[in-house]
Amino acid sequence: MVRAAVLPAVGAPLEIAEIDLPDPGPGQVRVRLAAAGVCHSDLSLSNGTMRVPVPAVLGHEGAGTVVAVGEGVTHIRSGDAVVLNWAPSCGSCHACSLGEVWLCANALNGAADVYARRTSDGGDLHPGLNVAAFAEETVVSAACVLPVPDGVPLADAALLGCAVLTGYGAVHHSAQVRPGETVAVYGVGGVGLAALQAARIAGASRIVAVDVSPEKEELARGAGATDYVVASDTTAREIRALTDKQGVDVAVECVGRAATIRTAWDSTRRGGRTTVVGIGGKDQQVTFNALEIFHWGRTLAGCVYGNSDPARDLPVLAEHVRAGRLDLGALVTERIGLEGIPAAFENMLAGKGGRALVVF
Predict the structure, then answer these.
(1) What pTM did the predictor assign?
(2) Peptide bond into 55 cis (omega under 30)
(3) Fewer beta carbons under 10 A from the terminal one: N or C of the chain?
(4) Is the alpha carbon torsion for 152, 157, 160, 163 positive or negative?
(5) What average pLDDT does range 197-225 have in this prediction?
(6) Using CA atoms, how far apart are residues 209 and 220, in angstroms rounded to an integer?
(7) CA of residue 55 relative to chain centroid, distance
(8) Dist. CA 119–CA 19, nearest whole Å
(9) Could you read off the pLDDT of 117-132 as tens digits, one per residue?
(10) Which residues pair with 228 in a beta bridge?
(11) Main-chain dihedrals φ then ψ at residue 346, nearest 5 degrees
(12) Beta strand 15-20 pairing with 145-147
């Protein structure tokens, strides 16, 4: 038996419960979690913005130690430190054939499986986003684990599983920020803080952080922001004023709200690039007129998982960590237990803090 945070139904409060995990079957791995990040996607799953089979154990940003492997697993063994990869690519769908593994059509097939049962009543449980990291231990497909690179602390390595891959990838893979360019990052949560660090690593000359909370300025500047703007109706105008009335070269939107996406677009220069990382609901409609699309010549792009390939990108991120260019701990503003996840969700809704990290 292990303790886990269970989502009994969409919109229902999380429940801390004991669950029974099976031994790993063929092609599976059992992992004892060291830490799991509380991501906005978990909140979106719990409130129905994104679909998830329920009851489920959420949590998709995690790292831990392998305690058992099933038949046929050869690339990992008991005792290995691993990062959970919640979106493993199948290697055979159309997107994978194009090398766009972050768009794999089969990446989330495992989320519909029954992977564990409640101890109290034997009820089925699904693994939220494949890996069910809000638990002391989990059983996952071997494709969902990658070795923790040397020099990365195990608990901090959890952040590589989503926030850092997403924020770094948005800057380096999607927006492809070049040295000397100017960047605005909207939303100073876990992903936004990673994007700020990534912009600094990319050599951006000016990095503007935007958030609704004035209290996040110190956090943003510590991650690399050269300027801080409290979000308002005049945000785009303020950013243009900081950039000789031109606007930034790149805007990275990490909020997922129609108004924020529109403002990010408005804050870029003519020919600028806006990358949308935030996950919004279907009711969030963004509108543009045909003339402005032509006149401004801007690019608006969605970004899934930072357009990242975890197997390729984790060693690159680890090198930045070892060199001191990437500070994983700077993303974390609180370390909590399983019982603290609901409060972490409330802080997200209130726009407070960076990444909350569940430490086991």
Answers:
(1) 0.96
(2) yes
(3) N
(4) negative
(5) 97
(6) 6
(7) 22
(8) 5
(9) 999 999 999 999 999 9
(10) 209
(11) -65, -40
(12) unpaired
